[in-house]
Amino acid sequence: MFHNETIEEAYASRAAFGAPVWQLGAWVSTYTAIASNAMSKVSNHVEIITGTPPISLEEYLRTSG
Fold first, then answer.
1. Backbone angles phi, psi at 26, to 5 degrees
2. Whole-model pTM above 0.90?
3. Angle of helix 7-15 relative to helix 21-35, nearest 10 degrees?
4. How far is CA 30 from CA 4, 6, 9, 33, in A?
5. What is the DSSP track for 29-51?
């Protein structure tokens, strides 16, 4: 779940896991991408790559048996 943090808070909250500095930067860059809505665009790449339309997690769990 997304929780709005300052960049400093984002680094501090992830530093508690003891991860190396490069990994903290990766986590925070993911956070900033989510915060800026850069990751909100829906694409058709799943269907292009797999040849099958995507389904929701709920549908997958219901039909995968």
1. -65, -45
2. no
3. 140
4. 13, 14, 14, 5
5. HHHHHHHTTTT----SHHHHHHS
Separation between Cα atoms, residue 16 and residue 11, nearest integer Å: 9
Cβ atoms of 53 and 47 within 8 Å: the answer is yes
CB 34 within 8 A of CB 4: no
- The pLDDT tens digits along the chain (65 residues) read 667 889 999 999 889 899 999 999 999 998 898 889 888 888 999 899 999 999 999 999 999 87
Can you say whether the dihedral through the CA atoms of 9, 14, 19, 25 is positive or negative? negative
Q: Which residue has the tokens 């984002």?
A: 10
CA distance 42 to 6: 26
